[in-house]
Design a protein that fits this description.
- By secondary structure, this protein is α/β, with parallel strands linked by helices.
- The chain has helices spanning 11-22, 53-60, 76-89, 110-124, 145-151, 168-184, 204-215, 226-233, 239-255, 263-271, 278-288, and strands at 2-5, 26-31, 44-47, 63-68, 94-98, 128-134, 153-154, 192-196, 220-221.
- The strands form 2 sheets. The protein has a 7-stranded parallel beta sheet, with helices on both faces.
- Helix 1 crosses helix 6 (168-184).
- The mean pLDDT is 96.
- It comes from Rhizobium mulingense.
- This is NmrA/HSCARG family protein.
Length: 289
């Protein structure tokens, strides 16, 4: 019984691989360049990508459970749909898919719409799957830590609705537990969606206040400037992606990322411990500065 992890060299996928290995699972990792993978020795590394169908067929041969993570790319939906079709041909029935919270609400945001399309195909194709829907990754704010610490401002346009930010380490551990639950079940389990939300729903002002307390000096919320976000992001990512992120920021302002009743309690019970907080993340960053 083999678990195939896609996105195995990314921030979430790498941690899932490590968790699975520690729990004694038979793990296979799909990577673009095995020479750069740097994964545990126990992992079977296979070269390939979602647009190379033959490489997918090879990677999925003999696999019982699939962790599907598709990157934010222009053809994200096409890549994921190819992967699902190859998985079905390979007889894989057990899947954990990493989607995004409110994929059915942020309908004008390209990478949200793509993930919602994948969710629909998983359901329509009859897969037995867990669809994980994480909120904003706490670690996304690593890219603005220098602005926070150096210029005294929190620049992300979070707004006043609030985001239930979640630590990627919690995402990886929950995904691992779901993969093992499906892998070890006597029969394929029914489709299920799980919102992955952090312990608090925080506004832009809340986050600035956390940084102010952690750094012991005033940190201002930079305001709801989604145009400024797009222009800043264009300095280190493609223009289409920066615009995608701007559209996401606009939905932060109008809709937020809010958990449903019982989400936090369910995740806490699943992990057997409290979820990691944004304040804990800020303390880690401050201590390493």
């Amino acid at each position: 019984m083999t678990i195939l992890v896609t996105g195995a060299t990314g921030n979430v996928g790498r941690q899932i691989v490590e968790h699975l290995v520690k729990r004694g699972a038979d793990v296979r990792a799909l990577v673009r360049d095995p020479s750069k993978a740097q994964l545990p020795a126990e992992v079977s590394v296979v070269q390939g990508d979602f647009l190379n169908v033959d490489s997918l067929r090879n990677a999925m041969s003999g696999v019982s459970t699939l962790f599907l993570l598709s990157a934010v790319v222009p053809d994200e939906f096409t890549q994921a749909l190819i992967a699902l079709n190859v998985a079905r041909s390979a007889g894989i029935e057990r899947i954990v898919y990493l989607s995004v919270i409110h994929a059915d609400v942020y309908v004008n945001v390209p990478h949200f719409a793509g993930k919602f399309g994948v969710e629909r195909m998983i359901e329509q194709m009859g897969f037995n799957a867990t669809i994980l829907r994480p909120a904003y990754f706490i670690q996304n704010d690593l890219m603005v830590k220098d602005v926070i610490t150096g210029y005294g401002a929190y620049p992300m346009p979070i707004g006043a609705k609030g985001l239930a930010m979640i630590d990627i380490r919690d995402i990886a551990e929950i995904a691992t537990l779901e993969l093992l639950r499906r892998e070890q079940a006597a029969e394929p389990l029914a489709l299920e969606r799980i919102n992955l939300a952090g312990p608090q729903t925080l506004t832009g002002t809340d986050i600035a206040a956390i940084w102010s307390a952690v750094l012991a000096r005033p940190i201002a919320y930079g305001g709801d400037n989604t145009e400024g976000l797009e222009q800043n992001l264009k300095q280190f990512m493609p223009a289409w992606m920066a615009y995608d992120m701007r559209l996401m920021g606009e939905r932060f302002l109008t809709d937020g990322m809010l958990p449903e009743a019982g989400d936090v309690e369910r995740l806490t019970a699943l992990l057997g411990r409290p979820l990691r907080s944004y304040r804990a993340f800020a303390l880690e960053i401050a201590a390493s500065a």
